[in-house]
Amino acid sequence: MSIASPTSPLSPPADVAETAGAVPAEAAVKTRRRRADLLVAATALVMAVWVTGALWSDPAHRASGVNSGDQAFFEWLLSYGAYALTHGADPLFTHLLNVPDGVNLAVNTSISVYAFVFAPLTILAGPAITFLVILTLNLAGTAYAWYWLFSRHLGANRIGAAVGGLFCGFAPAMISHANAHLNWTAQWVIPLIIAQCLRLVRRDRPVRDGALLGLLIAVCFSIAAEALFFTALALGVFTLVWVLSRRSEVKALVRRVQTGLGSGALVAGVLLAYPLWLHFAGPQRYHGTGFDPHVHNEDLAAYAAWPARSLAGAVGLNTDLAANPTEENSFFGLPLLLLVIIGLVVLWRRTDRGHRANLLGLGITAGVFFLLSLGPELRWLGRLTAIPMPEALIGGLPVFNAALPSRLALIVAPVFGLVLAWLATALSRTDGGSMRVTLPGPRWAWIAGLTVALLPLVPTPLLARERAPVPEFFTSGQWREYVADGGTVVPVPITNDLLPDGQRWQAAALADAAGAGEGVFRLPAGFFLGPGGPNGTGRIGPIPRPTQTLLEKVAKSGAAPAITEADRAALRDDLRYWNASIVVLGDDVHGAHWPTYQPALKSVMTDLLGPPQRVGDVWLWKAPTA
């Protein structure tokens, strides 16, 4: 972890040390800091609302324009968490999805902490509102948390910390993942973990500080386990470099740090014992995501490109170099790339030995993650080059095989943010911060450089699209007249990541049941990660049964094929396998990435099961009893 003091890791940040013993001066510093904190928090919140504004215009009927499937999945997780909390159900394994096998949520992104904390809001307002509140707070909270870390622990003054923190909170990768990823946008917890590691080094309360670190680790595992893994790797790389650079200071720290890490491991181990067992040894687990690292690797050119949802993108300067719109994990733009490299060199040459160890650690950490993000084979301008890269050596190892290489670029953004914070601190004429260097050349040239680097990256609002409301048949509880508690509702088409309606129906029923204390229906298949991929890896949803395959083809093409007796027999087998009570088709079928054809689905289902009943605002077929 980075050490703010230029002389010793045991020293407090400079602005605190200098005011010690001077009560009036300390009070003035605290007042100015409080005002700065409020201003940065307000700015971050306004920016977050700006980015998510298209969703806020109508939360119940609008969804992510590029990733509505993931949004439906996170809304389901929020509802299921509220239901599990009020019904005493297992929050990390459920048989409500993927009948009859169930789903291991520990190997998915369970976000149980969010689901529990926001359960009252989910019950009161529904999962769509809760999703949007969390997404907005994630962006604002991440920006503020990095600002807090930079200003309190890493030597930046308030202006510098604001520049660096706002960059980190609204970096291209954050805006990209704001397309429905509640896990990757929750990076506010990472600065808290880093700060707690610094406290282990700087003060002599290792048991208490270690216990709090363990708690933060457990929280981060619940929200974004992959981000926790990346953070641990980055801190490990930085610490190794720092230790090699400052050997003389290490001996005094070893016992304290060991005690703190032991305390943290104990707390985290107790809190995560069951989730870790489920993750590595529980039912419906898998090893490796099954996503191709040759597809989900960062394009080398993407580091100098601009992102889609930015001012540069708005005027057509963005480049389509990401695997999909949610994975623009670098996209810093050439001006920022050059500014950070020049800034690192200048800061290195003009600062003291204490900060040089920090700069070296930051540079090497960013370089390691930059190389690893390129995946097993170098990609340039959208084409694989057959040039092997270092990630090929570790990508098949346990845990590493569950991470997408391109996301390793997420570690580079906070490094850039800290360099920006230090440069802005050096340029600022206000007091505070330990990074006090004089930058060469005219001050206006550096300010112009920061403007040219950062202005094109100012985010533009996320895209949104219309989404049909959940049918009243489910929101009113009318389904209970046709399905016994624990019975299975079969949505048409069968739910997966591309056709998420069924999971949204169940999410609404779960939120209602969480508040009313009642039960809920089950679903076949669903959108989740589970076993079934090649060589023991995971896949999205179960291996589809014949009826699921048939209905997905119809939904996507609009072509209603001639139905045979074999199709009808396969449907009866599938309904028995799922223990189905009813089959339901809404008036509007939502496709996450392509148009759907509800009339064709109704025609095919009529051929399979006969004419449907019109019940409320859905079409319904009772499952055959034999």
UniProtKB/TrEMBL annotation:
Q: Pfam families attached here?
A: DUF6311
Q: Does the keyword Transmembrane helix apply?
A: yes
Q: Does the keyword Protein transport apply?
A: no
Keywords per UniProt: Membrane, Transferase, Transmembrane, Transmembrane helix
Q: What is this protein called?
A: Glycosyl transferase
- The source's superkingdom equals Bacteria
GO MF annotation, one:
transferase activity
